[in-house]
């Protein structure tokens, strides 16, 4: 049965989608036998965009699933090789408004995704969910179905505050909604050797230690390789040619992947 991992952070612009797509790319490249599903929950549809497939490319999507107009098998498409996608459509932008009405008819509003994934979980080794930078009804569904959460963290001035907030919100889900969410770990993204980043990485580690949450030793360096790969090749950088003669920063993802496997996260 597939392990469901949600990537969440209560702050936009930290690179969640880049993290998800590059991590998936690294897993797929390391083991072509692993079956992976990526669920895009953001109305911008940046998971598909990372593979040159913008919003509007797919006829069915997550919004259809939540509104009950399609079943999950009708909303899944091949992304590449051993990786599938459950995308969003342009209608995703209106989903919250439509669900305001539909939720009144639903007895288990936080279990819609959980119920649907039950039909296809056995088809995959991993299911990754890329969430929007809000903690709404849709994200609640992601947390409800998840075996664990990965939190990406950018060591900028407000990054530590965002990290502390997401930890508190996940605690709220546990206590008030009885959703037992396990935090698999915090990952530093877009990290540079500059003093400010070093200081904020240290503060983040202290916050994680206080909350008894793991922060991975491996971190992802800041580089234009990730945006260039999407812009020029319509692929996450981990699926492009890696320069073995020089230290290609993309290798950071494979180092992180090895650490996650060693720690039993994957």
Order of helices and strands: EHEHHEEHHEHEHEHEHH
Average predicted local confidence, pLDDT: 87
Q: Alpha-carbon distance between the termini?
A: 13 Å
The radius of gyration is: 18 Å
The main sheet comes to:
8 strands, mixed
**SSE class:** alpha/beta
- What overall form do the CA principal axes indicate? globular
CATH superfamily of one domain: P-loop containing nucleotide triphosphate hydrolases
Strand order in the sheet with the most strands: 3-4-2-5-1-6-7-8
CATH class of one domain: Alpha Beta
* CATH topology label of one domain: Rossmann fold
Total helices: the number is 10
How helical, in percent, are the residues? Answer: 25-40%
Residue fraction in strands: 15-25%
How many distinct beta strands? 8
In the CATH hierarchy, the architecture of one domain is 3-Layer(aba) Sandwich
Outline the low-pLDDT stretches.
none
């Amino acid at each position: 049965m597939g392990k469901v991992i949600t990537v969440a952070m209560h702050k936009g612009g930290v690179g969640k989608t880049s993290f998800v797509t590059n991590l998936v790319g690294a897993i797929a490249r390391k083991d072509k036998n692993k079956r992976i599903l990526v669920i895009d929950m953001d109305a911008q549809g940046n998971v598909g965009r990372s593979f040159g497939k913008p919003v509007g490319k797919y006829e069915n999507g997550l919004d259809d699933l939540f509104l009950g107009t399609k079943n999950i098998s009708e909303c899944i498409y091949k992304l590449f090789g051993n990786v599938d996608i459950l995308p969003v459509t342009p209608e995703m932008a209106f989903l919250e408004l439509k669900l305001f009405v539909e939720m009144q008819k639903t007895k288990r509003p936080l279990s819609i995704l959980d119920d649907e994934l039950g039909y296809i979980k056995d088809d995959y080794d991993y299911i990754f969910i890329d969430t929007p930078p809000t903690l709404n009804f849709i994200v609640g569904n992601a947390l409800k179905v998840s075996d664990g959460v990965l939190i990406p963290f950018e060591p900028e001035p407000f990054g530590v505050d965002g990290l502390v907030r997401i930890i508190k919100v996940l605690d709220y889900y546990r206590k008030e909604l009885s959703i037992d969410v396990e935090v698999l770990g915090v990952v530093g993204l877009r990290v540079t050797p500059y003093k400010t980043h070093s200081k904020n990485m240290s503060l983040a580690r202290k916050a994680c230690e206080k909350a008894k949450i793991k922060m991975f030793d491996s971190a992802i360096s800041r580089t234009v390789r990730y945006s260039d790969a999407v812009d020029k090749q319509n692929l996450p950088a981990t699926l492009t040619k890696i320069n073995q003669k020089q230290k290609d920063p993309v290798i950071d993802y494979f180092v992180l992947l090895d650490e996650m496997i060693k720690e039993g996260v994957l």
